[in-house]
Amino acid sequence: MVVIGAIASAIGIALSYWIHWFPADAAKQDKPIDTLYHVLMIVSIPIFVLVTTVILYSAWAFRMRPGQEREDGPPIHGNTRLEVVWTAIPAILLVSLCSYAYGVLTDIEKTHKDELVVKVHAVQFAWSFSYPQPGGRMVASDQLYLPKDRPVRFDIDSQDVIHDFWVPAFRVKIDTVPGIVTHLRVTPTKLGTYPVVCAELCGLGHSVMRSTAHVMTPAAFARWLAQKQAPASAGGAGGGGAPPTQAQLIALGRQTFTGEGGCGSCHTLADAGTTGTTGPDLRVLRGQTPADIRQDIVDPNARIAPGYQANIMPSGFGQTLTAQQLDGLVAYLGSVSK
Amino acid sequence: MEASAASLHSAGAHAAEHEHHGPPEAHRSSRVEPQLLGMLLFIISEVMVFGAFFTAYFFIRVVDNNPWPAHGTELPKIIAGFNTAILLSSSVTIHWALEGIKRGNRFALKAGMLTTFFLGATFLFVQINEYVHIGFAPHNSAQASIFFGLTGLHGAHVFIGLCLLAFVTIRSFRGHFSPEQHRGVEVPGIYWHFVDVMWVIVYTTVYLL
Amino acid sequence: MTAKLRAPGWYRAGAFVALGIAFAYVLVGIVRTAMHFDNPWSDGDAITIVSLIAAPLFFLVGLGCFDYWFYWVSGRPTRPEDHSSHGAHSWKDYFRVNTDHKVIGIQYICVSVFFLFVGGLMAMLMRAELAQPGMQFVNSQEFNGLVSVHASLLIFLFVIPIFAGIANFVLPLMIGAPDMAFPRLNALSFWMLPVAGTVMMLSFLAPGGSFATGWTAYAPLSTTMPLGQLFFTIGVQFAGASSIATALNFLVTIITMRAPGMSFFRMPLLVWANFSTSLLVVIATPFIAASQFFVLLDRALGFQFFNAFVGAGKDGSVLMYQHVFWFYSHPAVYIMMLPGFGIISEIISVKSRKPIFGYRMMAFSLLAIVILGFTVWAHHMFVSGMQSWIRIPMMITTAIIAVPTGIKIFSWLATLWRGVLHLDTPMLFALGFLTTFTLGGISGVMLAMVPFDIHVSDTYFIVAHIHYVLFGGSLFTIFAGLYYWFPKMTGRMYDERLGKLHFWATFVFFNLTFGPMHVIGIQGMPRRVADYAQQWSAYNLAISIAGFLLGLSTLVFLYNMIVSWRLGPRASANPWRALTLEWQVSSPPPIFNFDAVPTVVGGPYEYGIPGAVHGIFQSPAEAKPTPAGSVATAPTTE
Ligand code: HEA
Ligand code: HEA
Ligand code: CUA
Ligand SMILES: [Cu+2]
Q1: Per-residue confidence band for C632, with pLDDT thresholds at 50, 70 and 90
Q2: CA B45, CA A80: separation in Å to the nearest integer?
Q3: CA-based radius of gyration for chain C
Q4: How does DSSP classify residue B60?
Q5: Which residues of A touch C608 (CB under 8 A)?
Q6: A158 φ, ψ to 5°?
Q7: What is the pTM for the complete model shown?
Q8: Does A278 score more than 90 pLDDT?
Q9: Which of A234, B128, C12, C534 could lock onto C62 through a cystine, CB 3.0 to 4.6 A?
Q10: Which ligand number lies closest to the CA of residue C547?
């Protein structure tokens, strides 16, 4: 039985190495966590195998055979030695696992001197990121850009409900809590693009509250930052400069509709290719003027579309979207809807 | 309801004293009376409800370090202090009533219950009056919310307590209870004492500290 | 007609519900007029909220749950204890306020199983939606609603009450009591359940859809949701009140009504388990009540407990909700497991024909779990942004809980060792439970390791853990217990072949459904999403198919129970040759359980000791140990 158990454990552990468990490995935090996981598996599998082997063996060896219907087992009431053993061994095991896990925890949460600070702002149902610059200015972006090999500290807050900032490839996550700023530390180590996920249920659009993290070379990151800081960036969010043309506005509106605004998660709109059904199909508006449309977006409860409820469409778009994005949405809806 | 209606029990009857013609009498495996034990366990639960509200208080006041009371508001310590005295004296009067009936003194029972009831009602009245004139509302701040939350929760318990007292009072005027038979006074009494003690804690933490 | 309306029962209950709604309408109108609000008589939200509280209470009054007390408190003559509300002679007696613990037990079980199927059906809809990425059958509001109602029904209206139901039936019999300590309170506790369940299910009719914030209902999301959320907030209050009242009842019954000779260390472990559980309920459940009061006050009356942006410096505390909620809801997971441990102890000992190994440690480990259970709540908050130092003590206590649990697991294994194992349905479920729960428990210990939890929190790894401990743990023990006591409860035998089929189908499809969730969880699939990335489509399709088959396997159980109850062969008093007292009376037990209170003369699990008995039915004076089976019932053949 011991042999069978040992073999089964070995197979189990081998299997646990063979299964491709984790997503991409893109930060310094990954290795310690992955190793911790494998250690946990090495400890757990033999315990599980022990329990199942004893059960299977008993079920086979001690099963009631014909003729034993009225027989009883031996009246064994206990065995103090055994009981001490199976109290002490798990206790020791668990305390050592905890110490090890504590070590890993301090390792992955170490602070560094030259941290790059990135502010993460969550709102139903979109992420935005900003990079404080010398002189108090901010560079804003709706996607996350990070230089490789530089420790990053995220300062995270939320404007409405609890979300959770998670980049699976970095392994770490933390809730975004309205009213307080939470922190997360990561050192990206691998170039590439990785999904940013909202991991805490935050309402209707929870499953579409996604963004993208780009890990770039330090040089490319510096270029990107410089370009963002340049006053007349074309298109995109937050840019200033010359008033955009109507066509540009419509393009921006369409982009916002499917992207940062998250409108598509609730509204069907053939032109944007969205199929949400929580809100009305926006192809057929009820003859609103552009001003009305704007009000429908920034203050949805002012007028409720027939057959729908108040308080469903988020009322924070006036704050979360830039003025230009709003102009874009109004222009876009005006152009594609009846 | 039909046949057995003949044996309608009257005054002073209590569930446990009805003659049993069904099951064998359960064996008593503890000296504690079931009713008393039940009330004690219920009070443990109640203490935990207050515990949860105090957790909220702790988070808002201590963990989040908000000013207490909120800026520009004031809590009427003095009036509430009088109210505390009223409630505490009601604990004395109900104790008097219970001691009275234990000695067979029906007057002490009736008078004691009646005063207790009126003291409790006065407390509640003063409390509501305080709410009206306090100058802030629950939606003004988290501190205001937890102030109304804690005192309101306590007020609700006073109200429940008053209902129990009313029942006891009615029954004592109808001639129920006797020196042997006064669990119906004792058990609500314990609840009333609990409500009083709880108020002392609420008063200390919310008004004084 | 008026007579019908005045007597307690369904007619009066119906009338009272209408009355309750009318009362709510008038109350809201008057208050709003007095406070000079606009449209005082037509605020649908306010009326619904007050109705949700008033209508159930009126319903309970109408049904007659309070009749006796009303008479009593007003000093009017009460009806003598004629036990007319005791027992069941026809099926109709199960539909009224009945004070017989056996009837109440069966009422509990039937209602809970009903909610198992409702909750399970919602899981089927979820799995249908999740079978493919993208949106197919439901939109995201409906999906979140399904997740939330699925979990709420299965936790608050299935697992917790069905354990209360099984214990209701069995526990008084086991300790030699004629009934529970407070039979009328017992009836009231039961009737609050269908009320709570109805409120939760009605939320689907609410404008804006059902509550959709998960069963955890985190603020401030829950304080900003449409009306449906309040159906949870209020429904939970009734379920919670019911569970507190039942726990109180169990504690008083166990402490004051044990048969002579039954010392604490002669109690069957099921009684111990319910004793521990009831302690947890009495102490912890008020916290969920309070957490939902806060949400209700915030949502309905404009309180600011959870609003972090009331104004400069005046902010509510968002994390406070989670602390209060988990201070209940972690103990709640043991509320959902300890009674199951009790059931398993009974079954493993009887079916291995051996005394339970290490009885005292079994009892003490239950108490250890109760105490430790109160010290671990923040392991659900490792990524919540709370003060980071709290994580360390919580990690240690959480891991340590595995020690008492391990003691139980190993003691059960030792009980099996060298026994004579009867591998029938209850035993199969018990053995299945040992494996699946160990797996779920071990994944729990992995979650306790903070750095790992930081990665997998809020992913399908958690969903896998939930189902391994709740389905593989609690539900397996429930199935085991229902099969084990089926003959006692109904007086008939279930179909063994179907029972085994049910076990194997459940065991296989259970593992196929929830096993792969570990993998997609670690790979990064978040929970509570209606739509997911393409990379997980194959896994999810497989999970959904296995899930449907798991659903079908449950139908085998239902069929077996219903048909056997009506047509099964008559069961003897003691088909398992068990020693505990409930098996020493007829099946089903007589209306008052015992003709004479039994006397307990030995431990409950003395199998293998020739002539050992647990209880005898003579008066203590003549009591001397007699061979098993020779009292009250003749030895039975299987
Ligand atoms: C019946 C219900 C039940 C039970 C019994 C448990 C038991 C345990 N649970 Fe679980 N848990 C849930 C139901 C349950 N849980 C639910 C519903 C959630 C999700 C809530 C939500 O967010 O919706 C959850 C979530 C949850 C989390 C939070 C995850 C997260 O959200 O990030 C954690 C973290 O520590 C955890 C840990 C544990 C541990 C350590 C145990 C331990 O008690 C397990 C102990 C048992 C064993 C370990 C097995 C037997 C022991 C041995 C064989 C001895 C040897 C073993 C070792 C040495 C390892 N659980
Ligand atoms: C005791 C508790 C319990 C039980 C028994 C179950 C049973 C099941 N659960 Fe449950 N589940 C939870 C408790 C439970 N669950 C909890 C607490 C959560 C977390 C919720 C949250 O995040 O807030 C959860 C969440 C949860 C999710 C994650 C949702 C998400 O995060 O997005 C999923 C997904 O697959 C799921 C699936 C299932 C399935 C397939 C079953 C099956 O085992 C069900 C099988 C039973 C039946 C199906 C019976 C009914 C059968 C019929 C009516 C016959 C018809 C049959 C067919 C149509 C085939 N559950
Ligand atoms: Cu934001 Cu989920
Ligand atoms: Cu927990």
Answers
A1: very low
A2: 38
A3: 25
A4: I
A5: 72-75
A6: -135, 150
A7: 0.87
A8: no
A9: C12
A10: 2
